[in-house]
Amino acid sequence: MPSGDDAAVVAADALAVTSVDMMVEGVHFELAPGWASPADVGHRALAAALSDIAAMGSRAGEAYIALGLPARVTDDEVLELVDGAGELARRCGVTIAGGDIVAAPALTVCVTAVGWSSREVSPVTRAGARAGDIVGVTGRLGGPAGALELLAAGREPGPELLARLRRPEPRLAAGAAVAAAGAHAMIDVSDGLAADASLLGRASGVRLRIELERLPLLPAAADAAAALGRDGALLAAESGEEFELCICAAAADADAVAGAAADAGGPEVTWIGEVRAGDGGADLAARDGTLVAARGYEHRV
Amino acid sequence: MPSGDDAAVVAADALAVTSVDMMVEGVHFELAPGWASPADVGHRALAAALSDIAAMGSRAGEAYIALGLPARVTDDEVLELVDGAGELARRCGVTIAGGDIVAAPALTVCVTAVGWSSREVSPVTRAGARAGDIVGVTGRLGGPAGALELLAAGREPGPELLARLRRPEPRLAAGAAVAAAGAHAMIDVSDGLAADASLLGRASGVRLRIELERLPLLPAAADAAAALGRDGALLAAESGEEFELCICAAAADADAVAGAAADAGGPEVTWIGEVRAGDGGADLAARDGTLVAARGYEHRV
Asked: Which residue among A182, A225, B112, B130 is the one 20 to 30 A from A128 at the CA level?
C-alpha cells in the first residue's frame, strides 16, 4: 500500500474532487465478532470516502489509506483490512495509490479519496437545489439502522441487515450518471436522510419536503422496524451509515435522471418529495400532511 | 477547515502528487509544555506531508487535515493546532481545502498534501540517481537530533534547536527549483540522512558515498554533540525529523542546481558525496576512508 516514493504521482483530469474520512475503533466501529471484521473496517472506511465522491457525481480515481495500528492488531488483521479496502477499490476501478502506517492506541483508518471531473460535467454540490425541483433517493433505506437498533436491543439482525451495516456500497456509477443527466444537487445520506436533506436544503437556501410514505424501505428493515415497534419510514429517514444518494433535479428531468441511474446499473431512484422556496432545511411529512421530527444520527458503537 | 460540501473541488494541473502523513500523540509527539504546543503539532504534521511534495519537486497546492480528538483537548487547543498548520500553509501558498474531525482516544493528525506538476517538469523520484552523479543536501543538519538527545539527557536544548524540532520547514521552493534545474533524484531526510540516502540508493540501484566531514552541521547541533560527547557529523547523519532534501544530480549540473536553490531563497545546497555503481544503498565515509555505520532513526517521544 505505501508507494515506493515520497508521494504518489497520478495523471489528473481538469478538476480534483477530494474527500477525507477518519474512522476510529471504539467511536465508529468495534473490531469484534458480531460487529465488524478487519475486512469490514477496510471496506467501510474506503466506502465512506468514495461515497462523498459519488455524491459529487465525479469519477473516483485514487484512494490513500493511513492506518494507526495498536500493537495487539496482528499482521494478518492488517492484511485483511487492506484486502477489504482493496476488493472494494478494484470493484470501483479505484487505485489505492499510497498511504501511511503508524503506531496508535486505537485502530484508526484515515482514507483520502480523490475523484476527477472534466470541465464538461461539473461536480454536483449540495448547494444547487431550486424551488420546483423534485427530490429523489437511490436504493432502499433502513438497513444500517435496522441492524444497529436490533443489536442494541440484544437481537440478531440477520445477514442482509448486517451486510448493509458492514459493507455499504458507495453509489459511484449512479452518482456520475445522475450528474451527467443534469441533477442540480446531491448529498449522500451517511448521517441519515432527514439530517442530510436538511443540510442540502440549508446549503441551497430552499426547503425540501419529503413524503415519509414514499420512502423506499428495505424489506428486512421494515421487518426490523415491526419487530422493534418502530415506524418503518421514520427508521429509514433516520438511518445513518447509509451511502445512498439524495438527489434534487428539475421535475422535467425526472425520467432522464432515473433512467441514467438505471442504465448505470442502479440502484433505482425513487422520487420522494419536492423542493419549495422557504427557510433552508427539510421537512418530513406524514400521510396526513403533518410534519414529523426525526432524530439526528450520531456515530455510536 | 471542513469544506461546506461533501468533497473539495480544485482545478488540477497535469500530474497530481499526493502524500499522506499520520501523527499520533504518544508516538510522534507529546502535547505538553517542553515538547510541543498545539500550534507546533499542527505545523509539524503539515510540514511532514509538504516535505514529501518538496522532495518530488512539485508545487504544493492543497492540504486536507483530519483530526482525531480526545475529549480532554479543548476547543482552544484545536484552534491553535489548526492555526499552526494554517500559518505554515499561508507561508507556503497552500490551501487547507478540507478534512475531517472525529473523536479519538489520542490526538491524531492525518494530513494529505497534494502537489501539482506540469508535464514539462516531471516529478523527481528517489529512483533516478545515476553512477557519476554528485550528492547534495539542503540546509544544515543535526537540529532535531541535537534537541532530542539533549532532552533525553535531561538538558535544555535552547531555542534554536527546539525551533528545529518543533517547526521544521518543508523545502518547497528549493525542491521545485532543484527539480527544474535537472536534479535526477531527491528524498527528504525525515528518517535521517543516512537512512534516507540508503533508500534513495536502493530505489535507484546505485551506491551513494557520503563524506561525513562534508556534512553541513547546524552550529547549535555541533555544540550539542560536543556537550553529549557525540561525533557531530554522525549526529547530523542520523538526525531524523529533518525536512532537508538529499539531492542527486549530474556533476556538470552542480552549479546550476545549487544556484537554482539559492535563487529560490535557499537554503544553500552542500555537495557531500557521489554516486557509484554497486549494490543499492549508501555508505558514510570518515576522513580516513573507513565506512561508518549509522543508527536508523525511529520515532520516539
From this structure: B112
